[in-house]
Specification:
Blueprint lengths: L16 H28 L4 H23 L2 H6 L1 H10 L2 H9 L6 H23 L6 H18 L10 H24 L4 H23 L3 H4 L3 H30 L1 H4 L6 H13 L5 H17 L2 H5 L1
Helix pairs in contact: 1-11, 1-13, 2-5, 2-9, 2-11, 4-8, 4-9, 5-8, 6-7, 6-8, 7-14, 9-11
Length: about 300
């Protein structure tokens, strides 16, 4: 009697590195948009930039501490403590203090344009120099479209400001270049996404929290209403401090540092979209046009258009 051969179950094709990197980058951009929206709410509610940094790295350090207890800091052992300290500094408290603190001197629109533009341009330049990752014409064209879209999103706010505006602009520029340095050096030194995230969270929390406890204290944080404090803890400490950093470093791993550099440029757009249900703020027609430009430029810069074609 002949045997019956059953058809084998179809096996799903594994996602390509480009698609996985695209998904990880979008997740990071969405979470950073939420972080930006909550940072605004926190500053309006009486928090200072250092308070937001404490919530972010204090909570993130506690969340990632079990990894350190079980495995230590393998990345620090592999690349050396000096390099580990550099990565923790570039993506740690100085980054948040500059990026959030700049809003005390410059309008929101300036930060929405300067910081992501600095990340994108700085990352592409550093990748070309340190990683020999030369940008293609398609990628450069996509970045140009993204920067144009950001300028449209920021709109008239780009022309607002006062005597101290250059100070805030310099802080936004510094924050963007710090994140660019973190992503490129992490790639150059072979940083695993999980290990890099744990390293930044634990070292930043271990240094920042005791210093603030002795100097400024936690009075402003503890004065927040419980629902507001819980939202800050979840968004700043868990989603932005851990999940978003892990997602972005994964995007760098799968896409390359130069292509992944375009995702921070989506943060103002995601923050604008998040503001619709959170604050009831609907974007104008001009801002929606800028949003469309950013998305189109992103698809072009990461090679999605070529992949689909």
């Amino acid at each position: 009697m002949s045997s019956i051969v059953l058809p084998s179950a179809p096996v799903a094709a594994p996602a390509s590195p480009v698609m996985k990197g695209l998904a990880a980058g979008v997740v990071a951009a969405v979470l950073w948009g939420l972080y930006l929206a909550l940072s605004r709410a926190g500053v309006v509610g009486g928090l200072a930039a250092v308070d937001i940094a404490v919530i972010r790295y204090g909570v993130a350090g506690l969340v990632t501490l079990p990894f350190v207890v079980t495995r230590g800091l393998p990345l620090a052992r592999r690349i050396g403590w000096w390099r580990a300290g550099v990565l923790a500094t570039l993506a740690g408290p100085p980054f948040v203090l500059a990026g959030v603190g700049g809003y005390a001197f410059a309008p929101l629109a300036h930060g929405a344009l300067i910081q992501p533009a600095a990340v994108t341009i700085g990352s592409i330049a550093l990748a070309a120099w340190l990683l020999r990752d030369r940008p293609t014409r398609e990628r450069l064209a996509g970045v140009a479209v993204i920067l144009g879209g950001l300028a449209v999103v920021a709109g008239p706010g780009l022309f607002a400001g006062g005597a101290m505006t250059p100070v805030g602009d310099a802080m936004f520029l510094a924050a963007g270049l710090m994140w660019a340095g973190f992503s490129i050096l992490g790639k150059r030194w072979g940083a695993d996404p999980v290990e890099a995230t744990v390293l930044v969270c634990v070292l930043s929390g271990a240094v920042l929290v005791p210093v603030v406890a002795v100097t400024a204290g936690f009075g402003r944080i503890l004065a927040l209403p419980v629902p507001d404090l819980a939202a800050q803890v979840v968004v700043q400490g868990v989603l932005s401090g851990v999940v978003a950093v892990l997602a972005f470093t994964s995007a760098v791993k799968w896409l390359g540092a130069s292509r992944a550099a375009v995702f921070p440029a989506m943060v103002p757009v995601t923050a604008m979209l998040i503001g619709i249900p959170v604050a009831g703020e609907w974007p104008t027609t001009l801002q929606l046009t800028g949003l469309a430009l950013v998305v189109a430029g992103l698809a072009l810069a990461v090679g999605l258009v070529r992949l689909l074609r």
